[in-house]
Specification:
Elements (H helix, E strand, L loop, with lengths): L13 H15 L3 H18 L3 H4 L3 H9 L8 H16 L6
Helix pairs in contact: 1-2, 1-4, 4-5
Length: 98
């Protein structure tokens, strides 16, 4: 399971990509709480590494949907801005800073 060994599967950013794709899938079924839970480790990983490229592999559609979601109290303003930056980065194919 991803949570059991997040570093062990993070070859070329796959763990980060999987977290973002999982959050997108959870968002699509309406589970914003679980989607936010899936994203929190991604934000922490990017904050620690400074490397968001794995998140961008999830693609512009998923990142646009996540950036536009009504997170309310589930994500803080900085996390919401990070999603917007990732969505913009995926759309322009650049890796914005976290």
């Amino acid at each position: 399971m991803l949570a059991d060994d997040p570093v062990g599967i993070d070859l070329h950013g796959q763990a980060l990509e999987v977290r973002v794709r999982l959050a997108d899938a959870l968002l699509r079924i309406g589970d914003l709480e679980a989607a936010a839970d899936a994203l929190r480790p991604a934000f922490a990983q990017v904050a620690a590494s400074g490397e968001p490229a794995g998140a961008l592999f999830a693609g512009p559609r998923a990142l646009r949907a996540l950036a536009a979601a009504p997170w309310g109290h589930r994500l803080d303003a900085g996390q919401a801005r990070t999603l917007q930056a990732w969505a913009h980065g995926a759309a322009t194919r650049t890796a914005p800073a976290a």
